[in-house]
Design a protein that fits this description.
The chain is globular and about 50 Å long. It has one domain. It is mainly α. It has a two-stranded antiparallel sheet. Helix 1 packs antiparallel against helix 2. A hairpin with a 2-residue loop joins strand 1 and strand 2. It starts with a strand and ends in a 10-residue tail after the last helix.
């Protein structure tokens, strides 16, 4: 469950973390902080570094999901497959006209 509220210069998120490990909770905190840094950076270096770090942290989150730890059936590496699928989908999206707008 996710709820949020906004107040002046703050966005408050409330997440149900009852099924998450401490490491997963730390990843969520780090990811949110990193996204804010990326969206608000005013330097080229920050823009490129934070963009790379967001994707790296996202891949770490995919590899550390409850599903990927439970589903090592027949030596299938679900997390790597999920990341490859997501990258393919991302490339398709980036090559489409929709890639420059979020709210359409």
């Amino acid at each position: 469950m996710l709820t949020y509220s906004t107040q002046k210069d703050q966005l408050n998120l409330t997440l149900d973390i009852s099924r998450l490990s401490e490491q997963q909770v730390r990843m969520i905190r780090a990811f949110n902080a990193l996204v804010v840094e990326l969206l608000s950076t005013s330097t080229e270096e920050g823009y490129f570094e934070k963009s790379s770090e967001v994707l790296r942290l996202w891949a770490m989150a995919v590899k550390n999901t409850n599903f990927s730890h439970q589903k090592h059936i027949d030596n299938i590496n679900y997390s790597d497959q999920a990341i490859e699928y997501a990258i393919d989908s991302l490339m398709e999206f980036l090559n489409s006209p929709k890639s420059s707008s979020f709210d359409n």
